[in-house]
Structure formats: structure tokens, C-alpha cells
Amino acid sequence: MTALYYINLDRAPERRTFMEAQFADIGVQAQRFRALDARAAGPTGEGGYVPGSGWRYGLTKAEIACFESHRAVWRRVLEQGLSSAVIMEDDVVLSGATGPVIESLASAAPEYDLVKLDYSPKPSYFDAVRMMNGVAVRQILQPITSAGAYIVSGKGAKKLMKASRRYSDPADDFITMPRRMWRMYQVFPAVCIQVCLQMMQIEGKQAPAVSRSTVQPPDPDSPAQCRDKGPLWFRVRREFYTGCRKLYWLGARASLSRRGGFIGVVPCVEGLSARGGTDIDTDQAQ
Description:
Layout: E1 2-8, H1 13-26, E2 31-34, H2 61-80, E3 84-89, E4 92-94, H3 98-106, E5 114-116, E6 124-132, E7 135-140, E8 149-153, H4 154-163, H5 171-175, E9 184-187, E10 192-194, H6 195-203, H7 223-226, H8 232-258, E11 262-264
Parallel strand pairs: 1-2, 1-3, 5-9
Antiparallel strand pairs: 3-8, 4-10, 5-8, 6-7, 6-11, 7-9
Helix pairs in contact: 2-4
């Protein structure tokens, strides 16, 4: 059994309308999942966030709320005993291929833990193409940006819940973080794209490196101003491992190329970047 959930804030009704119109247009049934709001008083979520427990040291309230919203959906998948579930944020532009791809991947749930459906602006490393019930996918070999749309199997949701008992990475980095026994893939080409990234494509601009905060100006919770980068030893260690990873890929590029791998930005299905429907508030992120 498969379900589709889209995460939406109560204070973003225009985004709900935007997503539901698209679901109706492509003939897909979806359920709204109430997002945790970073503006709300009190604890953001259950408390899995522990500064310094991940690749990054600290997160903003907005990033924690976003992560805990995704985490709440993973929990729902387990509670409902679903074989798989599609999880989307509420600023995703869908292509006509989205529905058929979701249907095909739902039947292939035993083959993966997670499959990313959306475009990512960050160049990354992917393994050779393989087919999952007629859908072309590539294994993700390095964390990539965007948790806008993905399908997770029941076993994958269980692994994510266990791994997120302690976290300090944004949701998009976390779900594509290479880890032992984690089978993650990217649909090639991507069948949907977040609005802000689509607009950047259309305007010919470079995509933003981070999501915008949910707190309106003055913006004390913006990632640029408030994300704690941690003590010196943490930053030095991170730079060391970053350097080691770059050296590894310098040596591994040739091998990856020989076996049919891909290095670069995920392509989109034809016509997706030119699709309309971007008239929503792109400042009001999850």
C-alpha cells in the first residue's frame, strides 16, 4: 500500500491550493500533512536534534521544524504499515511523468529505501543507470540538495527514524547521506522541481545554496545569520574530511566513468523547467 503526503503549513493556504490543483491535474490522490511551524512557541519536535551529531553542527529553528515535519511523516508511514510513501513539500512543480513514475516505483519498494524524484541544483556523483519497474534510476553516491519530493519504502522509513534519533543536518542532506545499508537512488531524469529552483532555471540564474527561512524580516532565524558552525575543532575536522572526500573522488572519477556513472547536475524531464504555475510565495519555506 502506498500513500502520497505533501507537507504544508497552516499559514500557507495558497501553497495548499497550488499543490492540490497540480494533483488534480495529473490524476494523483494526495493527503495534506500539517507541517510543524518554526514560529510556534515551545519545542519544535520530539527532540532528535543534537548539535554536532551530524555533518553540520547547528540548525536554525526553521531547519529543525522542516526536519521534524519530514520525520513525522516517516513515523506515519510506520504506524500505517505502508510498503512505501511519497513525501513532497508544498512548493514542487510536477510534470506529467510524476504520476506514472510514482506508480511504477510503488511496485518496486523492495528494491530501495529511498528514491529522490525532484531536481537538485548541486553537481554530484551517481552510479550507472538501472531500471526499477521501467523507471531509470541512478544510485546516489554523495549528499545532494533538496528534499522536495521522494518516495520512501517502509523499511527505508524505519531506517530514517532510527538514524534520526540524533541529527544536526538539514533534511535534504540527511536523507541522501551515504550510510551503511542505505539504498538510495535518484530518478533520471527528475520528474518534478521546487518552484524557487525552476524560477532560477527560467531566469538563467544560479540556484540558491540554502532554503529561505520561515521567519519574516527582520530575519534573526536565517541560516546565514543563525546556523551555529560549531567550535573550532569541529570546523577543522569537517574541513579535513571534506578534503579527504574530494581527494577520493579525484581518484574515483575514472572508475565511475568506466562503469557508466554520471557526474553533474540531475537533468529534468523535457519541458519541466518551462512549466507554468510559479505564482506562489517562494519566501515562505517549510
